[in-house]
Amino acid sequence: MGNARLDAIFSDVLESLRRVIREHRVTEGEWRLGVAWLTEAGTQPNEIPLLLDVHLGAAVDDVNNAVETGTENTLEGPFYVPGAPLLIAPYVLPMRPDEPGERLLFSGTVRASDGAPLAGAMLDLWQVSADGGYSHFHPGYPDYNLRGRLATDDEGRFEVLTVVPVPYEVPKDGATGRLLAALGRTAFRPAHLHVKLTHEGHRPLTTQVYFEDDPWLGRDAVLGTDRPSLVTRLVRDDGGPARCSYDFVLEPQPAAVPA
Ligand code: BEZ
Ligand code: FE
Questions:
Q1: Which CATH number, 2.30.30.240, 2.40.30.110, 2.60.40.1180, 2.60.130.10, labels domain 64-250?
Q2: Does the beta carbon of 112 sit less than 6 angstroms from any atom of ligand 1?
């Protein structure tokens, strides 16, 4: 017997595509171009996950991870790597001795939906460097550069030194970039910090923090991810590192549904 759920989903995918073909009267030339473009994507490493994340990842994330009372979720993206170093306070994200970029002190709290501080909540942080690369994905970075895990203190607070992330372009030398260019869209994402938060008894949260006044906010290449509630302010006022803060809220873990 076939898989009924797969059958239902695949039939709907096909029906949606047939409707598009009919409504737009897709020509045979356009069809062949589409097939060639998909074939090209399939031969490029990491291109299919990137393509799907850019166009569809946010929808899958929302279906599965939308929050009710906590900090809004947003897409994990293709650049997460598990197993980042567990840091010891005072927290500094692992970085190269000559790591370029302005230093950033990122602080905040993690609380439950009722406002109770969550001590020992774990933040798993990852970000792009000031020269525009993610360790493990772009060449020339040590493993786990600008990636680390840290715990909140007894009052649910955290503070970590890192560098200010920059707006960057999603890889655009492959099929994903060619499509964005053909659509007249840029490949830029607003600057952001990625974070996964966990605390026992609470729903794990994967989200991103953005910065006010970023020229790419609202026109993220990855549609549906740069949510206004996730935007904070970068403060530069005392000659020290830039500072930003974000107060996260984790929802209670929903009761397990009996199998
Ligand atoms: C990112 O934020 O790292 C990302 C998300 C989706 C597609 C590409 C990159
Ligand atoms: Fe990113």
A1: 2.60.130.10
A2: no
Q: Is 165 in the pocket of ligand 1 (CB under 6 A)?
A: no
To test ligand 1's pocket by mutation, which of 53, 56, 61 has the most ligand atoms within 8 angstroms of CB? 53
Q: What is the pLDDT of residue 104?
A: 98
- pLDDT, position 255: 79
The three-state (H, E, C) secondary structure of the chain, written as one string: CCCHHHHHHHHHHHHHHHHHHHHHCCCHHHHHHHHHHHHHHHHCCCHHHHHHHHHHHHHHHHHHHCCCCCCCCCCCCCCCCCCCCECCCCEECCCCCCCCCCEEEEEEEEEECCCCECCCCEEEEEECCCCCCCCCCCCCCCCCCCEEEEECCCCCEEEEEEECCCCEECCCCCHHHHHHHHCCCCCEECCEEEEEEECCCECCEEEEEEECCCCCCCCCCCCCCCCHHHEECCECCCCCCEEEEEEEEECECCCCCCC
Q: Is the CB of 79 under 6 A from ligand 1?
A: yes
Would you list the domain boundaries of the chain? 1-43, 64-250
Q: What is the pLDDT of residues 18-62, one digit of tens each?
A: 999 999 999 999 999 999 999 999 999 889 999 999 999 999 999
Confidence of residue 259 (pLDDT cuts 50, 70, 90): low
Instruction: Record the pTM.
Output: 0.93
